[in-house]
Fold these 2 entries.
Entry 1:
Amino acid sequence: MLKEILYKIRKNPISLLQRAIFKIFIGPIKYHNGTDYDAQRYWQDRFSKYGKTLTASGDEGLSEEENCRDYELALNVMTSVFHKENINFEQIKVLEIGCGTGFYTQLLHDLKVKSYTGVDITDVLFAELNQKFSNFTFIQKDVTTDKIIDLSFDLIIMIDVIEHITSKDKLSFAMKNVQKCLKRNGIFIISPIMEISKKHLFHLHSWTI
Ligand SMILES: C[S@@+](CC[C@H](N)C(=O)[O-])C[C@H]1O[C@@H](n2cnc3c(N)ncnc32)[C@H](O)[C@@H]1O
């Protein structure tokens, strides 16, 4: 964490300062919504700004190349988890919560998944995703407030979404949603879960197990 901040200071201190001002002062006002923040508007703005790049869903403080490198590492981890679980992808129904730019959609597509539903709080990228993955389904839903209707998924993945749910009640709703729509003996893959809860910004909270 400290190493990461020092790297960003050395790389571009002005840009880091601008982002810090936004995240500490401007963002909480701009996205203020009762006791929480307006996550739908936050992600709509973010994807409208960056489009289908990995900076949109990754770390805004890093370049696209650096985000690609980090995503490549995450892809290796995900691939090895899938491998360990010995999943027959052609036979299963998959739900991805927070599909974003479709990074993991691509992986699941490459693994020959036939039945895929991607849920996201914003539909900004859905036209592109629908075009690229025409046999997959994309649905706009806030997993912390809207019930997922289909209740029979064999595999649910939820990557880099939980830290953007900042209220305990909303987290609880989201987890019940998952519990209800996962088949018996289904697999749920979620990250990140932190050892200690340190980070808290208006749009970020690190949850422990
Ligand atoms: C950091 S991005 C991660 C995207 C993708 N899972 C990945 O790893 O590349 C977080 C994603 O979760 C979505 N998201 C955030 N809160 C959500 C919610 N309450 N319900 C559904 N999607 C949500 C955002 O729109 C965004 O696409």
Note: The first helix runs from residue 2 to 11.
Entry 2:
Amino acid sequence: MPIVVYFSHRGEHLINGKIQSIQVGNTETVAYKISRQLECPCVEIVPVTAYPQKYTDFLGYPNWLGTLPKPIVSFLQETDLANKLIYPFCTHEGSGFGRSLLDLKILAPASTIKTGLPIRGSRVLRSDKAIENWLIQFYESNNRQEDLKHAKTNSWT
Ligand SMILES: Cc1cc2nc3c(=O)[nH]c(=O)nc-3n(C[C@H](O)[C@H](O)[C@H](O)COP(=O)(O)O)c2cc1C
């Protein structure tokens, strides 16, 4: 069973060059779309509480200053993800993953990092197709034929 683990920040955001307040974080929106699609648990990393000790398959975060936010760095330092597959997804306001995938590889050297999904924060509500397309790699390696058929029918490739 995969698990979606994410860190997200609610409140004021820079969206298309303007400060706006949002109730649900951009990365949180994408995380819940993925967990609904996979019918799997979705766990939020909250800095003041203990980090989950279970294994990660999908790791989501906002791009902060070109890389991983500190709570994600702490999570990776404190969690043994050896031999796990990590499917990273991030939201951003123009920089994509930045150097976060390189930093992720350094922090999780014994994990396999699969192809990631970057989504612009201001487009998360329109990200269903991108998510579906990205999940094809997961369905293929887990032999989920029904989901694969559905994703390929809906995808643009
Ligand atoms: C402290 C901070 C630093 C950020 N740095 C970057 C950045 O370097 N590049 C970028 O494209 N977006 C950057 N952003 C924008 C966020 O990545 C973007 O708004 C994201 O969708 C927020 O996701 P969240 O709502 O899940 O926290 C930054 C936002 C914050 C709050």
Note: Helices lie at 26-38, 70-78, 100-107, 128-141, 145-154.
